[in-house]
Amino acid sequence: MKCHLCKEKSCYIGDPCKKTDSISLYDDPLDRKLLVVAAEIEALFYKEICRVDETLEFTRRMNFKKIGIAFCLGMRKEAKILGEIFSKEFEVHSVCCKVGSIKKDEFEMAKNPRIGEYSCNPIEQARILNNEGTEFNIVLGLCVGHDSLFYKYSKAPVTTIVTKDRKLGHNPVAALYCPYIRSDLGKELK
Fold this sequence. Notes:
This protein is of the alpha/beta class.
């Protein structure tokens, strides 16, 4: 499929170009509840609340009690604020990206003197939150690829509050909106 090239988007009005039986995909009660509550939040608060508020309301309506925050060390201030906000209503467990850090030499990783000798450990972040029994996890600024590993190994559903983009102030969609930035996208980097 190449939905990004479609001009009609008739699926928006219930006439999808590909007929499927997707209902059975939501046989798991948690999957169904995640879908239903997400739609409820969207319908009730469309364009009225920010993503942090959406996440709080979603977490309340899902009746989750234990929340995990997997954050980048570079966002420790933001993690503290987010943890304080969620701690008013939930049991919060947080884990920094460098927990159980791995010496980059162990995997022959590229190094840069500005960022240190130790790699982040997203699988360990997920393992720790899994062991804490978190019911819902929040990613706060993990690097590309590190976030992928965290999503893969988290047993609990995950949402993202901040997507890291050091160049664009953690606003990666700016690269798609701004023609000056967009014109440089996709060039092979060395």
